[in-house]
Design goal:
By secondary structure, this protein is α/β, with parallel strands linked by helices. The chain has one domain: Rossmann fold (3-Layer(aba) Sandwich). Helix content is about 30%, strand content about 20%. The strands form 3 sheets. Strands 7-8-6-5-9 form a 5-stranded mixed sheet, covered by helices on one side. β2 and β3 form a beta hairpin. α1 crosses α3 and α8 crosses α9. The N terminus is likely disordered.
Length: about 325
């Protein structure tokens, strides 16, 4: 599922970013494997680079800072865990080198409860390489054994302070996994980490049908939020037509704005409004990807009508 996972780039105005391009300084290669290499970013932090894809993971602010801003703080993860009853479930779409999951575990380490993480990817090689370079990456501390268990058997059970954690790995192409009837048996999520390559590079991960299928897997009675790094109009329209409520997401340091979607409007601080709707109608890249082929097009009349009927804009809430 490498084509289904993002480590760089943006769907609108940030496609094909070269390593280091955001700062003007290329990351300095520190250690190389057959498929991946450890690089030092301009801000001094370390990350991974895929040699085959020519993509640097979390290329500007680094893996920990990005995970904290985009997922932990934006999802209000610690606060939600404190008030949650029963098992809290995270779907980690794009395991990669596990920076998102391990940062979430570290930030919530003091919170009692039960946490279940389902991580999706088509390969464990980035994680295997990253574990060999745990010290400079600086997010593996306390979790080396858990990662080893996940690599060995696809499941890790451990205590994270007062927390009980079960971490499972699901191997395969994410759109294919979602389309399989067995996906209906997955534990329903409370949060989704969505970290895929840009629509231009991996359009199959950004189609409206995929987001519609993802929304259909949620439990309407279980509030769930999905943040992602993109703020593209195409993405936001796709999420809205899939049934999500959608809002402007927090800045990450790399981006001034991201996107958050949810099945409950209460989980969104800044819902998109009619001002955004007017801008979307003028956009030259607003029509969703109905097929896994990247295109840019203005919104069709039928898409516009469907948007106007969405409860977020129709006043029917």
């Amino acid at each position: 599922m490498r084509r289904g996972l993002r480590r760089d780039g943006e769907g609108e105005g940030r496609i094909g970013l070269a390593p280091g391009a955001a700062t003007g300084d290329a990351p300095f290669p520190m250690s190389r494997g057959s498929e991946y290499e450890l690089v030092q970013l301009a801000n001094g932090s370390y990350s991974l680079r895929s040699v085959e894809e020519d993509e640097t993971f979390h290329p500007v602010i680094g893996p920990v800072a990005e995970a904290e801003a985009l997922y932990v703080r934006q999802l209000k993860l610690v606060e939600r865990l404190r008030t949650h009853t029963g098992e809290f479930v995270i779907w980690d779409v794009g395991l990669g080198a596990a920076a998102n999951v391990l940062t979430a575990l570290r930030c919530s380490r003091s919170v009692p409860g039960k946490l279940l993480v389902l991580s999706f990817d088509h390969t464990l090689e980035p994680l295997r390489f990253a574990l060999k370079h745990a010290e400079p990456l600086r997010y593996f501390h306390h979790y080396e054994r858990a990662v080893e268990d996940l690599l060995d058997s696809g499941i890790a059970r451990f205590r994270n302070g007062p927390q009980e954690v079960e971490w499972r790995y699901l191997d395969g192409d994410f759109p294919t996994l979602v389309a399989d009837p067995s996906s209906a048996t997955w534990p329903k999520p409370d949060a989704i980490f969505f970290d895929a390559f840009s629509p231009a590079k991996n359009p199959e991960m950004w189609t409206q049908p995929l987001f519609a299928s993802l929304h259909a897997l949620l439990d309407p009675a279980r509030p769930c939020a999905l943040p992602t790094y993109s703020r593209s109009t195409l993405l936001r329209v796709s999420l809205l037509l899939a049934g999500f409520f959608v809002g402007a997401g927090h800045a990450t340091g790399e981006k001034e704005e991201t996107t958050i979607a949810a099945n409950s409007l209460a989980l969104i601080d800044e819902p998109l409004d009619r001002h955004w709707l007017a801008k979307a109608r003028r956009s030259t890249s607003a029509e969703p990807l109905w097929e896994p082929v990247y295109t840019q097009a203005r919104m069709s009349p039928s898409t516009w009508e469907r948007l106007l009927a969405h409860p977020q804009f129709s006043g029917s809430l």
